[in-house]
Amino acid sequence: MSQHTSSREDAYQAGYQRGFAGKQSQPERFPGQEDEYRRGHRKGWQDGYMNQPRPF
Fold first, then answer.
1. Rounded average pLDDT over 34-55
2. Domain region containing 37
3. Taking 50 as the threshold, does the pLDDT of residue 19 lie above it?
4. Using CA of residue 12, residue 38, residue 48, residue 56, what is the dihedral sign?
């Protein structure tokens, strides 16, 4: 495994972590990678939802 991660992976991971924590999506922080970010956020949201109730 190389140490270098692509910005696509970074966007996906950032989205996943925010989604998992139940935070709002911020795809604008990753211009050009919004789709990757949204995919990560959606997946993280679903995974996080399995483990803890959401307030909304």
1. 86
2. 7-51
3. yes
4. positive
Is residue 56 in a domain? no
Which residue in this structure is represented by tokens 């966007």?
Answer: 11
With beta carbons less than 8 A apart as the criterion, state whether 37 and 10 touch: no
The answer to whether 21 and 14 have CB atoms below 8 angstroms apart is no
2 is a domain residue: no
DSSP state of 32: T
- Helices in 1-56 by DSSP H: which ranges? 7-20, 34-51
Tokens of 12: 């996906």
Percent of the chain with pLDDT over 90: 71
The tally of domains found in the chain comes to 1
Terminal-to-terminal C-alpha distance of the chain: 39
Tokens of 48: 């996080």
